[in-house]
Amino acid sequence: MPSANAADLRSTSGSSPDWRVISPYLFILPAVLVMAVGLLYPVIEAFHLAFYDWDIGQDFDDAPNVGFAHFTRMLADPDVWESISVTLRFGFWTITIEMILGVALALLLEKPIRGASVFRTIFILPLMVSPVVVGLIWRYLFDARIGWINYYISMLGFDYQVWLGDADLAFFAIVLTDIWQWTPFIFIIVIAGLQALPSEIVEASRIDGANWWQQIFLVKLPMIRSILLIALLMRLIDVFRGMEVMYIMTGGGPGRATELLSLHIYNRAFDAQQLGYASAISVLLILIVFALSFAILVMGNPMRDKADV
Predict the structure, then answer these.
(1) Where on the phi/psi map is residue 115: left (φ > 0), alpha (ψ -120 to 50), or beta?
(2) Alpha-carbon span 162 to 104, nearest angstrom
(3) Is 65 helix (H, G, I), strand (E, B) or coil?
């Protein structure tokens, strides 16, 4: 009687497809199709629309083809470059502080200490709040007349501040709001990576004489390097696509002090009703995000070290 292994070999040696190889691709095919329709199609349409001078309410067939005029105008538009500068400064401060705070909180709460679950729940609450609600909450807190922040700083002897009416203070306000909302995201990712580390490696480093700081910077953080890079990449993408909080809090003002590139695109498309020009700027945003993401992946390459968690 032939063995089971021999029967398996005969069943897979024929001309019929090997479903064990094909089935994983069949399972992910619906997700790939959804991503293609939901991501690639809008990008292609935005690029196509960028060549037309189309206004809201106008039949698209009547929209004139302007060629590369929108792209030429965009490259010479100081408002576009100012919004890019605001976005880069906003991303630098928020991502840097969020990564530091998120990693620090994760390191403090990775061990099973009394009340750790309560602290973890409190830390992730801001992440559960809708961005529109976050904008409304912090707009109220920073209100020059009835805001709690002015109330408490007046108790300390400081003068009231027009937080959302001054360019520097408004920028500080949106940075602080973003840190409050998105630091828990870094915290969740990092603490999951830390808790998945093999305890034997950490214990071996302790036996070899590594102190607490050495265990962190020479053992733990290098082992979750790929997780840190992925968190950095995800926050970078969020910075460039985020708009709701800034729109609710400042509307991009005062002036253009808090007008991120995504908010500038929105204002061009729906306030100025310049859909073709806004699409051209959207293409620029996509290229910037792609370039920065590619640079992070090339320099960090989180999948290079297969020993990473």
Answers:
(1) left
(2) 32
(3) strand
Go through 272-300 and write b for each residue having 16 or more CB atoms within 10 A of its CB, e for each that does not.
Answer: eebbbbbbbbbbbbeeebeebbeebeeeb
Look up residue 113 and give its DSSP letter: -
Burial degree of 202 (CB within 10 A; 0-12, 13-18, 19+): middle
Half-sphere exposure of 23 (CA within 13 A, CB side): 3
- Residue indicated by tokens 């003068």: 159
DSSP for 78-107 reads HHHHHHHHHHHHHHHHHHHHHHHHHHHHHH
Identify the CATH class of 50-300: mainly alpha
Does the pTM exceed 0.90? no
Nearest CA to 172 out of 157, 184, 182, 162 is that of 162
Q: Give mean pLDDT in consecutive 10-residue pieces for the chain, a chain of 309 residues.
A: 48 61 84 82 87 80 86 93 95 95 89 75 85 93 88 86 91 95 93 86 81 84 89 91 90 90 91 89 92 85 51
Q: Which CA distances in Å does 163 have to 30, 131, 250?
A: 48, 20, 10
